[in-house]
Amino acid sequence: MEVTDLTSFSSPSGNIGCQIEPLTVRCDIAERDWKPPSAPPDCELDYGQGLTLTAGSTAELVCAGDTALSGGGSELAYGQSIGAGLLRCESEPSGMRCTDTETGRGFELSRESYTLF
């Protein structure tokens, strides 16, 4: 599925909620077995509740006072993907993987762990 406007979606389990638009994707997680690192000094809001990727940039932990979990979007079934511009997310039983298709940078997010690449 391809979208051009801000679109919310979630994993089938509902544990991961995301928002994607052509320049940015963000996924937050409700329950996790991992702990994020300490917040950087310039983050005065909640830190590490999810991951974000901006097209042409590197993925990073979220610093925000809101959440992508309550976006009210549709379920992205396992094995399905959604894209906006250069960004694409794939829903798998192991978690959500979002990638910048031009740079190859992105993230994987699951209850067990997270990876920035």
What descriptors fit this protein?
mainly beta; single chain; 5-stranded antiparallel β-sheet; 11 strands; 6-stranded mixed β-sheet; 117 residues
Class from helix and strand fractions: mainly beta
Distance between the termini: 24 Å
**What does the radius of gyration come to?**
13 Å
Give the beta-strand count.
11
What is the H-and-E element order? Answer: EEEEEEEEEEE
Q: Domains counted in the coordinates: how many?
A: 1
Silhouette? globular
- Major β-sheet profile: 6 strands, mixed
Q: Uncertain runs with pLDDT below 50, 5 residues or more?
A: none
Number of helices: 0
Brief write-up:
This protein has no helices and 11 strands. It is mostly beta strands.
How would you describe the overall organization of this protein?
- The chain has 117 residues and is mostly beta strands.
- The protein has one domain (7-116).
- 0% of the residues lie in helices and 47% in strands.
- It contains no helices and eleven strands.
- It has a six-stranded mixed sheet with strand order 5-4-3-2-1-6, with no helix packed on it. Strands 7-8-9-10-11 form a five-stranded antiparallel sheet, with no helix packed on it.
- It is globular.
- The chain starts with 6 loop residues before the first strand and ends with a strand.
- 33% of the residues are buried.
